[in-house]
Design goal:
Blueprint: H1 11-18, H2 22-26, H3 36-51, H4 58-67, H5 74-83, E1 123-133, E2 136-145, E3 150-157, H6 162-170, E4 181-184, H7 193-201, E5 205-208, H8 218-230, H9 240-256, H10 268-272
Parallel strand pairs: 1-4, 4-5
Antiparallel strand pairs: 1-2, 2-3
Length: about 280
């Protein structure tokens, strides 16, 4: 109003009548617009974070930016994330489940915590975790190849049983005789004649962790921390069918798009095609 009438009336008089300080009228805010390069970096950070399903922190975002030829410090990434309210799912505390009965099989720990394997399917590890579906506990079983941390088999169901494990085993797309060793903890769901017969039929060596020693199956334990943090804790499943469908989608994303620090910030599928000596480079 003052500017539109400045040619007819005194600016001082109009400011006085309207109760507006003259300094307010003459104030010109400094330009807050970002340069095209800065805007490109901010947009890239937000895009990478959203594409990671809100999981990546500054370290992995820095790696993904480098793939786009953008060299940005982790401190700057963290500052931009804070400005945009981008908070990784890994800030959420995890609930520890109760223990179940033990598998009393006489099978020993053949793996001996040799979690770095040089050959695909040399060792496959597995475990189960709980997921709430329509107010009730359901369960998910995953099979992970230690060579490249790829999820090669999975299943979901209403009960934590050997049948769920067998369903995950049956979902593996490669020939089972390529698997040399199958390692799990001593959960009772892994103690089943059907599973034992399948392993024997395909010549797969059995290995079990020591009783009450989660460190013997550390990769599977870590896998489920990732699984709960990145996926299960953030979806309200209304049915087992929804869980099954979204689990399949997550596994595909995990194998084909999620980068891993232990794989030199490659995806499991990318790492599968590389010589083992390059995975840690």
């Amino acid at each position: 109003m003052i500017r539109n009438n400045a040619h007819k009336y005194s600016v001082s008089a109009m400011c006085s009548v309207l109760g507006v300080p003259r300094s307010t009228y003459y104030y010109k805010p400094e330009s807050s617009s970002l340069s095209s390069e800065d805007q490109c970096i901010e947009d890239a950070i937000v895009e990478i974070f959203r594409a990671s399903r809100n999981n990546y922190g500054t370290r992995k975002i820095k790696v993904e930016l480098a793939k786009k030829s953008l060299q940005v410090s982790r401190r700057r990434i963290g500052r931009i994330m804070k400005q945009h309210g981008l908070v990784s799912n890994y800030t959420v505390a995890q609930y520890q489940p109760h223990k179940t009965n033990s598998n009393e099989s006489k099978a020993k720990n053949q793996l001996q915590r040799q979690f770095n394997q040089d050959v695909p399917y040399a060792v496959v590890v597995s475990d189960l975790t709980y997921v709430r579906v329509a107010g009730k506990w359901n369960y998910v079983c995953l099979f992970v190849d230690l060579f490249n941390r790829e999820i090669i088999g999975y299943s979901s169901g209403p009960r934590k049983t050997a049948s769920l494990v067998y369903a995950a085993l049956a979902s593996i797309s490669v020939r089972l005789d390529q698997i040399q060793m199958f390692h799990t903890d001593r959960g009772s769901e892994f103690d089943n004649l059907l599973i034992s017969e399948a392993l024997t039929a395909f010549g797969i060596q059995r290995s079990l962790s020591k009783k009450a020693c989660p460190y013997d199956n550390a990769v599977a334990e870590a896998m489920f921390k990732v699984f709960k943090t990145e996926f299960a804790n953030h979806v309200h499943f209304q049915s087992l069918e929804q869980l099954s469908l979204e689990l399949s989608d997550y596994v595909h994303w995990f194998n084909h798009h999620r980068i891993h620090g232990t794989l030199g910030y490659r995806t499991p599928v990318e790492a599968r095609s590389l010589p083992s000596k390059l995975l840690s480079s």
